[in-house]
Amino acid sequence: MTNIVILTGAGISAESGLGTFRDADGLWAKHNIEDVATPEGFARNPQLVVDFYNMRRAEAQKAQANAAHIALAELETRHNGAVTLITQNVDDLHEKGGMQNVLHMHGQLNSALCSSCDHRWPVAQDMQVGQICRDCGAPTARPDIVWFGEMPYGMERIETALSRADIFAAIGTSGNVYPAAGFVQMAKAYGAHTIELNLEPSAVVSQFDETRFGKASETVPAWVRDLLQT
């Protein structure tokens, strides 16, 4: 059986209408990352941060899965082996596309986190500054997002999956954000065949054995078809 590990980034959600970091007129172009995606930014101006993620949550709720998300869900269902999907994205488009097991290494928009006791709970609507934790009662809720300077979720599980991978695929990632940008090197060290599927070459494209460039809605379904036919 072939073990497949897949890393997805913002590029896979772009065709669903959710902007990437590099969009010239996108959401991130209107905000300083230091203000809305760091613990220090939240400490300085929690209202700005909460409003920012409320806006992103509303956008994500309206977005629909595209052909790339749906193809990966089909791979999970039909592949005769393990499929581990790791995403840097905080939207739920993989789940909307039918994926059952998704490791959100950077957290999720539809989740709140208590900074006092680490309890998590679902959030469907807007969060409020000082929102009460459902478990400990402290007014210390925050978006359940891994900000810059914080440790991504599930690293032990990710490293185990990479050590067992026969195929490692990175889809729609820029290769600029670590530790995810280093996953290809780790997978290669363990003997995996590595492939990048991207709109354009990433910052770590030279690390991959194989590349396919184009829209995710086209390259990913074609790649999945190839895998399921072998």
Automatic annotation (TrEMBL):
- GO CC annotations? cytoplasm
Q: Which reaction does it catalyse?
A: N(6)-succinyl-L-lysyl-[protein] + NAD(+) + H2O = 2''-O-succinyl-ADP-D-ribose + nicotinamide + L-lysyl-[protein]; N(6)-acetyl-L-lysyl-[protein] + NAD(+) + H2O = 2''-O-acetyl-ADP-D-ribose + nicotinamide + L-lysyl-[protein]
Q: Please indicate if the UniProt record lists Hydrolase as a keyword.
A: yes
InterPro entries in alphabetical order: DHS-like_NAD/FAD-binding_dom, NAD-dep_sirtuin_deacylases, Sirtuin, Sirtuin_cat_small_dom_sf, Sirtuin_class_III, Ssirtuin_cat_dom
Domain Deacetylase sirtuin-type, first and last residues per copy: 1-230
Molecular function terms, GO-annotated: histone deacetylase activity, NAD-dependent; NAD+ binding; protein-malonyllysine demalonylase activity; protein-succinyllysine desuccinylase activity; zinc ion binding
Cite the entry's keywords alphabetically.
Cytoplasm, Hydrolase, Metal-binding, NAD, Transferase, Zinc
Chief location: cytoplasm
How the cofactor is bound: the record states: Binds 1 zinc ion per subunit.
Gene3D superfamilies per the record?
A: SIR2/SIRT2 'Small Domain (3.30.1600.10), TPP-binding domain (3.40.50.1220)
Summarize where NAD(+) binds, as residue positions: 9-28, 88-91, 172-174, 198-200, 216
The residues that hold substrate are Y53, R56
Instruction: Tell me the residue numbers annotated for binding Zn(2+).
Output: C114, C117, C133, C136
Required cofactors, per record?
Zn(2+)
What's written under domain?
2 residues (Tyr-53 and Arg-56) present in a large hydrophobic pocket are probably involved in substrate specificity. They are important for desuccinylation activity, but dispensable for deacetylation activity.
| The name this protein goes by in its record | NAD-dependent protein deacylase
The top of its lineage is: Bacteria, Pseudomonadati, Pseudomonadota, Alphaproteobacteria, Rhodobacterales
